[in-house]
Write a structure and sequence with these properties.
By secondary structure, the protein is of the alpha/beta class. It has 16 helices and 30 strands. The longest helix has 19 residues.
């Protein structure tokens, strides 16, 4: 065994960092006067190549720090020992020993879980982040493994996601949200791998989340055939600074491949948002360090956080994260912003669960939803924005939402006890897949209605991966343990669902082309510009009369384009008509702005004898049952001729 030259190190930066020609190691351990650093030359070695003992001379507070001089650390792994217990650095940037996804590790293999000393270098090609305003985002939520698993040799990896950049661009996506991809043990196990001991100050091993399976963990022994995979990645223990190694083509270069993925997306103008599941009792200081680390090292654009497990004001007011988008279930803006202050650029967002439940109920014709839905469609706040979604990982996919009345979770092995029973779904008359023409047409129309409601509402739309081409999980609304074709996206469906995919693309383009659908200003329902129309108004079958009656299932929403500049010019007016009755309804139309007429922009069913782009000459329009129709204002021919004459004079 060779000797190393080392001195007391820098205790200000926990984890591993460069120190001139050497490497600095710093770890927080309480109630001890000695910590041993063990360095292994090869990942599979059982005996350390170097041992560094840190006593009181290397200690400041509860932090032990040492700088190993003239040491590159390339290829080495390390582990700490204190009080006779070995543990992996909570600040480890890359983990070895968990290279194969879903592999059960015996006790001998668990002891080989360590941290890499030296991360892989990466030269960024895109030096500027997209920096897209929150209101302009179209977010696409995906699972790294499941999204690209069936996409060739690099499927199921960060590179597999990067390979889909052109797909994102074709669809119109400008932000992706990654489900948890920090290092964790994905195998539910009666004997979990060694975690950080209690005397290490991070204490995050004490965390708990709702996804844990106590009935599994209490068993003394689990047969291999009965072991389950934590596919989603919500658990009670993470290495918060390390990307998941088994999501990489080359696990030892997971950090490099993650950066490559982010770099490719940024070059395409697509932001990257990470979902970070924070276990309870997580050390706040360490969590803040982790978010800063990902923002700095991996250039992450935003985070979705479960704010019930951490101080939201601490994160929102951190100056290092001042340009990072933060998404949670709620923000105390009175603590974050001065009372009369309105941020020029909103960076806080609420993950809007209410939109999902309200819209699901309304679209399937439930009573008493008209007021809630009008609020959900038109709501945009001054200090925070809202992330709207209809489907998420936890529940039915959009295709299953209109294919099943009840969950079908038999494959989970929990006898139907898992997963919610409240889905607000509708099978359109037949449970499960069906080839009857009318059933298929109705299900397609319901999915079109859902996307219209999502993409034409004021909040930021979030699309769950696969919904844009009818991906199904066979009625499983809780596929937390399904690492198979139930959860993996079947890309073959993009061909059979080409009509629907094209419809979603056109809707996304419509939203992006018109600021009126994502106004940066809070809508007030007032004509404060004195232009003849309020910025937003609610209608029913009778124009200018909102009907919030319990039995009403038909609403109209008028966006006035004068309140939303589009390329420095006022936008078009748009009138959204939602008839969720099962019968046709005759709806009176409000007038658009002066000197304008209505044309039919699109509809999810045939609207009388009108074609898309045709002028609506009637004051009353018959809207079929369970249909969404959208009208767009257009200047009259006389106004257009006047504009042309004016332009000719200016040219002369």
């Amino acid at each position: 065994m060779s000797e190393l030259s080392y001195i007391p190190g820098d205790c200000m930066t926990l984890g591993v960092s460069k120190a001139g020609r050497g490497i600095n190691f710093a770890v927080a351990v309480g109630d001890t006067d000695e910590v041993i650093l063990k360095l292994f030359k090869n990942a599979g070695d059982t005996e350390p190549y170097y041992i560094v003992k840190m006593d009181a001379r290397f200690k400041f507070g509860n932090i032990f720090a040492v700088t190993v001089k003239n040491f590159t650390g390339r290829g080495y792994t390390y582990i700490y020992e204190a009080k006779g217990v070995s543990f992996v650095d909570p600040y480890a940037g890359l983990i070895s020993g968990r290279e194969v996804y879903g592999k059960y590790l015996n006790n001998k293999q668990k002891k080989l879980i360590r941290a890499y000393v030296c991360p892989n270098s990466y030269e960024w090609k895109c030096n500027r982040k997209p920096s897209i305003d929150f209101s302009d985002l179209i977010i696409y939520k995906l699972h790294v493994r499941g999204f690209s698993k069936l996409c060739g040799t690099r499927g199921g990896t960060y590179r597999g996601v990067a390979d889909k950049v052109n797909y994102f661009k074709e669809l119109g996506i400008n932000a992706i949200m990654l489900m948890p991809c920090m290092e964790y043990n994905e195998v539910y196990d009666a004997e979990p791998e060694p975690q950080v001991p209690e005397f290490v100050s991070s204490r995050f091993f004490k965390g708990t989340t709702s996804v844990e399976r106590p009935e599994i963990e209490k068993q003394e022994y689990i047969l291999e055939s009965e072991r389950k995979i934590n596919y989603w990645g919500y658990t009670s223990f993470y290495y918060f600074f390390a990307p998941k190694a088994s999501y990489a083509n080359v696990p030892a270069k997971a950090d490099y491949e993650f950066k490559y993925m982010v770099d490719q997306l940024h070059q395409a103008g697509i932001e990257v948002i990470m979902e970070v599941s924070i276990p309870r009792a997580t050390n706040r200081s360490m969590m803040l360090d982790a978010l800063r680390y990902w923002a700095r090292e991996y250039r992450i654009d935003g985070f979705k956080l479960n704010l019930d497990c951490i101080d939201s004001s601490l994160i929102a007011c951190d100056p290092y994260l001042s340009t990072i988008k933060l998404i949670g279930c709620g923000w105390n803006t009175d603590e974050i912003y001065p009372k009369e202050y309105t941020p020029l650029c909103k960076r806080l967002a609420i993950y809007n669960h209410e939109f999902s439940s309200d819209m699901r109920r309304f679209l399937k014709s439930d009573e008493g939803m008209s007021y809630n839905v009008c609020r959900d469609i038109t709501d945009n706040q001054d200090k925070v924005t809202k992330i709207n979604y209809i489907t998420d990982h936890n529940g039915f996919t959009l295709a299953d939402l209109y294919m099943y009345d009840v969950k079908h979770n038999e494959a989970n092995g929990e006898h139907g006890r898992d997963g919610t029973d409240v889905n607000y779904s509708w099978n359109c008359g037949v449970e499960g897949p069906d080839n009857h023409k009318k059933i298929k047409e109705l299900r397609l129309k319901m999915r079109k209605n859902a996307f219209a409601a999502l993409l034409l509402s004021q909040g930021v739309p979030l699309i769950y991966s696969g919904d844009e081409f009818g991906n199904s999980q066979g009625g499983n609304n809780n596929a937390y343990c399904q690492d198979n074709e139930t959860s993996w996206l079947s890309w073959k469906k993009t061909k059979s669902e080409n009509e629907f995919f094209k419809y979603v693309k056109e809707l996304i383009e419509l939203r992006k082309s018109h600021n009126v659908f994502h106004n940066i200003n809070k809508l007030k329902g007032l004509d404060y510009l004195s232009c003849g129309l309020p910025d937003v108004s609610i209608h029913s079958e009778k124009a200018w009369y909102p009907d919030y009656n319990f039995y009403n299932r038909s609403i109209g929403v008028l966006y006035a384009g004068n309140y939303a500049l589009n390329n420095r010019e006022p936008d078009n007016d748009f009138y959204l008509m939602f008839n969720m009755y099962w019968d046709d309804k005759c709806c009176e139309l409000p007038h658009p702005s002066s000197d304008k007429i209505w044309i039919l922009e699109f509809a999810t069913d045939k609207i009388g004898g009108y074609e898309v782009g045709q002028e609506i000459k009637d004051n009353i329009l018959t809207v079929p049952g369970r249909c969404v129709a959208v009208l767009k204002s257009k200047k009259t021919d006389s106004v257009l001729q006047s504009v042309k004459r004016k332009n000719k004079k200016e040219v002369k």
